[in-house]
Specification:
Strand order of the largest sheet of chain A: 9-13-12-6-7-11-14-8-2-20-19
Distance between the termini of chain A: 14 Å
Largest interface: A-B, 18 and 20 residues
Helix content of chain A: 40-55%
CATH architecture of the largest domain in chain B: 3-Layer(aba) Sandwich
Shape of chain A: elongated
Number of helices of chain A: 21
Number of strands of chain A: 22
CATH superfamily of the largest domain in chain B: P-loop containing nucleotide triphosphate hydrolases
Number of strands of chain B: 11
Oligomer: heterodimer
Number of helices of chain B: 13
Largest sheet of chain B: 5 strands, parallel
Structural class of chain A: alpha+beta
């Protein structure tokens, strides 16, 4: 017999209260937003609930009230002075209150307070994290919460017997999950957070703003944080270049983008950047982690994007900017083509701009190339030259005073990373009169066979070169190849789960709802009525799901009514089983008297008739079981069991 | 308290009717449930003795009516007789005006008289010449019929059988008791001089209290499913009527009360159902009522007992 089931009901009830308080506090801790003081405070739950479960006396009233008062003062101080964030303040307050409460649980009402606070903590935590761990904690909370609610009903009825409540708890949990799911799917998703601003930390990226300081890529190349995950429509050969944006102006220490942006609007379902044929395109489903930039990534070159939103910005270099995706998980479908992009701009001067002090570089460029070469040959020579003669390194010392980082790279250290290679190549091309620009994005990525998708990390950040070769933007990558680390199978599997979680739970959006609605309404759209499309899906969901849900409620209510006398019947049924196991003729059609008679026949203790009388009294007599009667009942059961 | 006086009642009846404690119990239960009893068995088994003893032990007035084919309704109800002194018609009450009536061989009389009796049983009052007379309380009819003799009988129709709460068979006494009976000088005088174990007022009060016995919803459902099963069974031509259900409910409450409980248990139902429902169903292959009781038991053996 499992020990938990063997516990008395009030004991399990107490345990669940402790569990709920813990899930609430843990959910806040895993957000990583709690300061060490709060973490230490939270540990106070353990002694508190240890004392409580052991049945030790609650803390004196004066101590509880004074601590609570103190906490309130600290809360106001905290909210408006220390963390200056009432949101975090609430989180801190609930943790402290939970700890105080753990030392002072007396009335049934106290338990409800604990549940309420735990719920509040989960709500706050949901705003602070996207972690899958939160999802697990939430499920735990849900099951514990339902069990506690059902148990509280039994405990209130004054029954003290062992538990036979798994079926109703299971049923209610399933129901709760079902409705949570239903609400999750059907509640309209509006952008923006409940609390006005998002509290979720976005990943700090470099290289995707209007101005990028030279040398900033080095810091992030060692960071394995996942930036995005990509599902490809069809197998596509490596290498993968995930193009972000281009920068064209270099002032010697930083790159900037001076291209004007234009707003583009949805054309049907797609944001069209340039015309393309769908058969030739590679479709990529891209799931972006929350980042602090506005850039949409995709294989070069993106021709069209299907995503939420009504408008986005682009520039002449076909970079895509979507301001509202900043700091959010975002997913979209990008269509890219392999054909080269013609140079559409008339004014190419901005791709020939050079910072002062280019004499050395200009000389080098001329040395590497022959005067009779075509631009393509020149570019290839420079690319090859850089790749062969310079070594890749992430540890690049600061250049000496008065020396530009590129001169330092080319003539002094002769080692650097992608930014150095790309910038050096562009400057050389520009001194030779070939228009070129730097592209920032990601290179490569790890294929996860579990989910058949590509994981792109912060460490995949890369920059390369696009040069105008005969009216076509051609890609050059002078950086020598670097071997990629291989991730273990388990972490790849976990990453797959994380991706599904992020995709289907956290980033579930109005866009997805429309997709579901569209799918559900497929059979009903034969005489197409576009304006009713999404509405019909919702109606369908309601038409099918609502009666199903109601029926489930009905079944559960009915089963609950039967199980209402829980432990009284539970013990009786176990005695009945016992008699049958000992060879008594017991069927579902046996009455209590039959059971009693059979029990005597099989030589069970004399307590059976008293036991059966107690059972009948409480089950059919409508008598409420008192503590003593309950204890007696249990005692008789134990005797019969032996 | 009630349990003790009922026990005393049972004991004093059993001092006369030996070895029939189940039948005696059910007879008392019928009395407590304000029902009427149908005794069916071969002659000479003690049906009359049971009825007479029950009446004496409860200090009730007793009347015995031998139902013959020429018996008229007025013979049992009573008639208006002209009183020359007052120059008015006076009602002379018949044997029906007693607490316990033994209607012996009820199937021997004509349907007219049968229906007069059964109407009185149901309504507990009689009307003569547009005047209504209430019958005394408690009021219980114990009818007997002989299962073997069919010649010259008028078998009771279902609608009238339905009015009896219970149908009992006494059966032969066990051997050791029968031996005693052989030597017993059966005399009604000795029963006549019996000390009542309980007063008829007490019986009346108990009849009131039976109504207050609790029955759990799940047991009501149990009764309902027994009844609906009788209507669905392929062995039964006519199932139990709603009135049958009412009687069963009454009977199980009275059983519980008799056992000294304030609530009904599944055993009360399982014990009473065959006796209460047996005579209310018509089998496809009509034989004896005892077969019907067996069928009811069969039905109950496939309905799970509420736990």
């Amino acid at each position: 017999m499992p020990s938990v089931i063997g516990c008395s009901m009030p004991q399990i009830y107490k345990f669940l209260t402790a569990l709920l308080a813990s899930t609430g506090c843990i959910s806040l801790v895993i957000t990583g937003e709690m300061n060490p003081i709060m973490m230490i405070t939270g540990i106070g739950l353990f002694p508190g609930y240890y004392r409580f479960l052991r049945g030790m006396a609650p803390a004196p009233k004066w101590a509880v009230s004074s601590f609570s008062f103190l906490t309130l003062i600290v809360f106001f101080f905290d909210s408006f002075v220390i963390s200056n964030d009432s949101f975090l303040g609430v989180a801190h307050l609930t943790i402290t209150f939970q700890v105080i409460k753990s030392f002072a649980l007396k009335e049934p009402w106290d338990h409800l307070q604990v549940y309420f606070m735990a719920l509040l903590q989960l709500i706050v935590a949901s705003e602070l994290t996207n972690s899958i761990a939160f999802g697990i904690i939430f499920l735990l909370f849900l099951v514990a919460f339902v069990s506690a609610m059902v148990l509280s009903h039994f405990v209130k009825e004054g029954t003290t017997g062992k538990v036979r409540f798994r079926a109703p708890v299971f049923a209610i949990s399933v129901l709760a999950l079902f409705f949570t799911f239903l609400f999750f799917v059907s509640l309209p998703r509006v952008s923006g957070k409940i609390w006005g601003k998002s509290h979720i930390k976005s990943i700090r990226t470099v290289g995707f703003s209007e101005r990028v300081d030279f040398g900033s890529f080095g810091d992030i190349k060692a960071d394995p944080t996942v930036i995005m995950r990509v599902e490809l429509s069809a197998a596509e050969g490596r290498p993968y270049y995930w193009r972000g944006m281009t920068l064209n102006y270099f002032d010697g220490t930083s790159w900037a983008n001076t291209l004007e942006k234009v707003r583009i609007y949805k054309d049907g379902e797609l944001f069209m950047i340039r015309p393309f044929r769908q058969e030739d395109a590679i479709a990529q489903k891209i799931f972006l982690e929350p980042m602090d930039n506005e850039v949409l990534f995709g294989m070069s070159d993106i021709a069209a994007v299907e995503s939420a939103g009504y408008s986005m910005a682009t520039d002449f270099a076909h970079s895509l900017f979507l301001p509202f995706k900043k700091g959010k998980r975002f997913n979209y479908l990008a269509y890219s083509t392999r054909d080269s992009v013609p140079v559409a701009e008339k004014n190419l001067l901005r791709y020939l701009q050079l910072p002062p002090g280019m004499e050395g570089i200009s000389r080098l460029a001329k040395d590497i190339t022959d005067p009779g070469d075509s631009p393509d040959q020149r570019a290839q020579k420079i690319e090859r030259y850089l790749m062969r003669n310079y070594s890749y390194s992430l540890s690049v010392p600061q250049p000496p005073d008065g020396m530009s980082p590129i001169d330092d790279f080319l003539f002094n250290t002769r080692k650097g990373y992608c930014e150095h290679y790309a910038t050096a190549m562009i400057l050389m091309l520009r001194t030779l009169g070939i228009p070129s620009r730097i592209v920032t994005g990601f290179f490569g990525g790890e294929t996860n066979d579990y989910g058949q998708y590509i994981i792109v990390r912060q460490s995949n950040a890369h920059s390369w070169v696009e040069a105008d070769i005969d009216g076509i933007w051609k890609r050059f990558d002078p950086t020598p190849p670097v071997s990629e680390d291989v991730t273990s199978g388990i972490s790849l599997f976990l990453d797959m789960i994380r991706m599904k979680w992020g995709r289907y739970i956290v980033a579930f959006s109005l866009f997805d709802q429309r997709e579901i609605a569209r799918f559900m309404s497929l059979p009903f759209r034969l005489p197409s009525m576009p304006e009713l499309k999404s509405l019909r899906g919702t109606v369908l969901v309601i038409v099918f799901a609502l009666p199903a849900g109601l029926m489930l409620v009905w079944v559960i209510m009915k089963s609950l009514r039967w199980k209402r006398y829980g432990p009284v019947t539970g013990y009786y049924l176990r005695v009945r089983d016992l008699v049958r196991k000992r060879g008594g003729a017991i069927t579902p059609f046996s009455t209590p008297a039959d059971v009693s008679r059979e029990a005597v026949k099989t030589g069970m203790g004399s307590g059976i008739s008293e036991f059966v009388t107690l059972y009948e009294e409480h089950r059919f007599g409508g008598k409420i079981m008192t503590e003593e009667a309950g204890a007696n009942y249990k005692e008789l059961f134990r005797e019969l069991n032996n | 308290m009630e349990r003790q006086s009922l026990k005393r009642l049972q004991e004093s009846i059993e001092s006369v009717i030996k070895g029939k404690s189940d039948a005696v119990k059910m007879a008392i239960v019928t009395l407590l449930g304000k029902g009427h009893l149908l005794l069916e068995d071969v002659p000479g088994i003690g049906k009359t003795t049971l009825a007479f003893t029950l009446a004496k032990a409860t200090n009730c007035s007793f009347q015995r009516v031998q139902f013959t084919s020429d018996l008229l309704p007025t013979d049992i109800i009573g008639v208006n007789i002209y009183n020359p002194d007052t120059k008015e018609f006076e009602f002379r009450s018949g044997p029906l005006f007693a607490n316990i009536i033994l209607a012996d061989e009820i199937n021997r009389t004509n349907p007219k008289t049968q229906s007069a009796l059964l109407e009185a049983m149901n309504e507990r009052r009689v009307s003569v010449d547009r005047r209504t007379y209430r019958l005394p309380e408690p009021f219980m009819v114990i009818a007997t019929q002989n299962p073997l003799e069919y010649h010259g009988t008028f078998p009771l129709p279902e609608s009238q059988l339905d009015r009896f709460m219970m149908h009992l068979k006494l059966g032969y006494p066990a051997l050791e008791y029968e031996r005693q009976v052989l030597f017993q000088q059966a005399s009604f005088d000795s029963i006549e001089s019996m000390e009542p174990a309980i007063s008829s007022e007490e019986i009346l009060r108990m009849q009131q209290e039976v109504d207050a016995v609790k029955i759990d919803d799940s047991l009501v459902d149990y009764i309902m499913s027994i009844i609906t099963h009788t209507r669905r069974s392929d062995k039964i031509r006519l199932g139990v009527s709603p009135r049958g259900g009412q009687f069963l409910l009454k009977a199980v409450k009275a059983t519980a009360y008799y056992e000294g409980r304030e609530y009904v248990t599944p055993d009360d139902i399982k014990g009473a159902a065959p006796l209460v429902l047996g005579h209310r169903i018509i089998l496809k292959a009509q034989t004896y009522i005892s077969d019907a009781e067996r069928i009811i038991e069969e039905i109950m053996s496939v309905i799970p007992v509420p736990v």
